[in-house]
Amino acid sequence: MTRIAFIGGGPKTLFALLELNDRCSLVDDEGPVVDVFDPYPPGAGRVWQAGQPRQVRLNVAAGIVDATSADGDGSFASWVARVEPRYGTEPYPPRAVVGRYLQERFRTLADTARFPLAHVPARVTRVARAGDQWEVASDAGTGFYDEVVLATGHGLPGEAPGPPLAGACNPDALIGDYGALGEQAVPAGSAILIRGAALTAYDAVLLLTEGRGGQWMPIEGAGGPSLGYVPAGREPARITMGSLGNLPMEPKPAQVPETINRCLDAYRDQVLAWGAGLAARPGGPGARCTGLFGLLLACAMECAQLSGAPATPLALWRTALTGRAEPGRGTETAAEHLRRSIAVNRGHTPPGTAWIWGRVWSGLYPQLVRAVSRVRWDPAQARVFRRVARSLERLAFGPPESTALKLLALFDSGLLDQRVFPPHLPADTVVVDAITPPPGVLVAPAPGGAAFSPVMAGLLAAGEVTVRAGETGLLTDTDGTCLDARGNRNESLAALGRPTEGPTLGHDTLNRSLHDEHVRWARRIARQRLPQHLGERT
Fold first, then answer.
1. Does the model's pTM come out above 0.85?
2. Which domain covers residue 152, as residue numbers?
């Protein structure tokens, strides 16, 4: 019998267990026994709690949500058509609906799995080596396991990096639980200052308006449909989003022109070939991103020419480094910026460098994830890559148009504003902290950054896991196996998802096919830990 503990029970854990189950042909006394530790319902975990308000919606198209198995159709599309048909055709359904689906998929797996699978509703406080096993201490007691998988996602309440924002009404990050935004803490008619101007802040704004009974009035105009806001009277008097850079996220277009898609297709294999070239020289000097950015810049220039955008290589590169588009847009208000971005997405206004980069980065993202996985960068090049990635992700992965139109209606009504976050908090203002903890396990890059989770701090101190200099995420092998402080595989310890962001890219996603560490992990367990007849489907 192989005892396996998953620390965290969100979608990454569900996907790994579905893969493992598909590779087990029958129940056997020598097979795995799996415990999933998470104080939240498994499958959904903290982020996708089924009880959260339905105004909080998926930020990516629901078509990527897939918790199917080899036993039959368990797709989100078929489930939602049967269980929540009113959302069957919505591309961005409520997160609560997705959470209910993930929870039901876990329950179905637990009832039918070819191995014992149990949920332990407790928070893990320590993981430490105990001979050939791992001692897992939690609020429920202590147990010993042969394998441990770290899949902590956004972490648990109280595990935020750095001190909390003094005076904020929410002591914990707004992740799956928005009770702190109730009318007792955030009274109607009050002035609200939100730290953050990205997706979590947008959720908070909608909960304080639409979530309090406000309604949207469709408006038809020459530029296409828009919205007006009809207040319910329970809203704050004023909501201000504040961030350091004061740069709005670029909304995603509903559709990408086919000419752009064909251009992107021509570069996919080139990006993969660049990554394969690095993999073929594992012992060489630190990698440089010059060749990769040369490919991306060439693709961006072609897309600009196809779109009629008056872009130059210099202007494109400046936008990639700064996140700011062509001169003039930096003086726009957030509302003007958003209005122009929607017009560009609809084809009414010529695109600029921001729109071009958004399509290139999002369109080539699956290939980028594979190409840069576990690259050992030259330190200076690593800083350039991280800077560009931060800029382009804001341009590529912003809100859908439906959310952007709501924000624009609130800007136009005078209820919402956006500006630089002030150095001193104003009096008579309710402060909301809408900064989401970053991925990885360290507050700041190694070697100086401290772990913000006691579990990760203990493993790092014991040398069981490692974080490379300049990074904040755990270094793993291609099957999720953690590498220890000496660079060796720690065969019975794995990490999946957000804790490994840095050496790998793009884990803040529900897309099951974007990464394959969970598939490789299941294959390793089936081949090496289970009796031979249990690992037939590999």
1. yes
2. 2-157+439-534
